[in-house]
Amino acid sequence: MQAEAKKAYRTKLFRDLYAGIIPERFPVHDCLALDYLIQYAGKDLIPFAFRYDAAELTEVFERAMELHFGDTFSAAARNPAALMFKQSKVNVMSRTGMIQHPETSGFDADEYDEFIAHPYDFTLEKILPRLNPGFDKDPINRSVNFAKYTLAQLDFLRNLHTALKSIRDRYGLYAPPEGSTAIQLVPFDFLADFCRGFTKVSVDIRRCPEKVEAACEALVPYLLWRSVAPVSSPEGANMIMTHMAPFLRQKDFERFYWPTFYKMVHIIAERGQATYIFCEADWTRFIDYLQDLPRGTRLHMEYGDPKLFKERLGKKMILSGFYPVVLLKTGTRQQCIDQAKKLIDILAPGGNFEWRFDKNALQMGDINPDNYRAVMEYVLENGTYANAGEAVAVGSKKEDTIRKFSHEYPEFTSKYIVTYEEWKKEYPPVNEEADRAMRIAYKKYSDLVQPFNDIYSLYG
User: How far is Cα 174 from Cα 27, in angstroms, rounded to an integer?
Assistant: First the structure.
């Protein structure tokens, strides 16, 4: 099958799945992270990660096809060159070249009121420079460091995009429409991971619970604004990587985590966008909550009883995950295949399923390549449906499962978000033709820079 035909076939698998139709075969994702692929290709993370050259990345991806079997090819990474210019405390490189996220705190407990009043402004003014000392300089050096950071990040993204497009085109691999996916942070995780830190927020929910609740609510307009995907498509998704939920007591989850999380997922659905949620650790005790999310929400489970999740959520949600990557390292070839068979027998019937492992392989020692190859070959050979084309489930329509919450929140505004209309008052166009051209240019370059001002500066 030629590349274009393969891409068309794979695209239909995903379109059917996301439209609530049983596909010819369930889609399959690999679990090989970019760091793993670099090492597999015989490269050292240092200095490779400091340049991420397009030609070298393409070479790495070509070598990866020896071990790659799935319908997609993804590669995400933090950029150490960009981290260097902002002197990040949030993402720190180890001696082996791996980027780690140590415990950090961006503000003190007595600053909650100021944060709640204007979360975005406070993030730019205080959290960002505290967690990135490269941005906490005099105006000249701060501007120069930010320029270096932005150029490094744009260079990295351009090279990565070039290499990914090359490999996808060459092998007919699927990707959602460009611009149809977005990272979606959720309030309590953002508060815990970057604003207060894991340890301090755990104290806050006991000492000042009302402040924590108010902070989460105040973050909703800001975080939703940050996640508007430029392109609307049923194949796209807002991607949530959860963190704090499984570490919370049930009553704390109910009070601090779930309310804003739940409303945000429904607001995203109001926009016509699906949500992909990686449920870190074991969400079994939250399964009743997950049932209340909109139909078609994509749930990637790390741990839990797959049979229970299939019974409770399988007709409404799209499930994936559960396969323990560690087994690919510790198990025999047959044990690895048997686990795949077990999961397929439980999760595949009736549709609403795509193959994923519980997490990615990050380093060479994380998996036995022979076991990985055996599992992926088995999955692809045994993923077809006899009843392809049938509807997944009879029941309420997706739109009937969406609750409307967007009216509860004000439109996001900030003194640091300057519209073109405001800008041109200080720099007026010379005529109508210039006005039209300036408007387009203003949006283009504002959009290029804006993401790096806050969330992406924290994440790297």
Answer: 10
